[in-house]
Structure to design on (115 residues):
């Protein structure tokens, strides 16, 4: 014989399903928004800070760094590099790099990966 389910229990389940569907739809909207805001950084790329020392001073710069050669170089013979210089903190290239990594993280996280 089957189990009897109360109407209150059924209603609660339907409300929870509706809330989840609404939340998923909202996340999809955010994902679509960020996909169209600019370039996404390639997978396995992160922003790294490094220091350059001169006689009396030390300067901090930022770069995009990849685990394998990813970025095209600007020379007579184009090659791929694991690094892309971004400059000082707050420079246009630095902000664009950070935002590219952030957008990629938001867009690529769809519940498929473990966070």
């Amino acid at each position: 014989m089957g189990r009897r389910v109360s109407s209150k229990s059924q209603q609660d389940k339907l409300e929870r399903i509706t809330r989840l569907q609404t939340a998923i739809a909202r996340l999809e909207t955010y994902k679509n928004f960020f996909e169209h805001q600019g370039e996404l950084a390639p997978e396995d790329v992160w922003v790294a800070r490094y220091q350059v020392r001169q006689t009396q001073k030390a300067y901090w710069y930022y770069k995009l760094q990849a685990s394998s050669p990813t970025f095209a170089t600007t020379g007579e013979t184009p090659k791929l590099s694991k690094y892309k210089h971004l400059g000082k903190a707050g420079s246009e290239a630095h902000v664009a790099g950070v935002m590219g990594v952030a957008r990629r993280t938001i867009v690529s996280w769809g519940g498929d990966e473990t966070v």
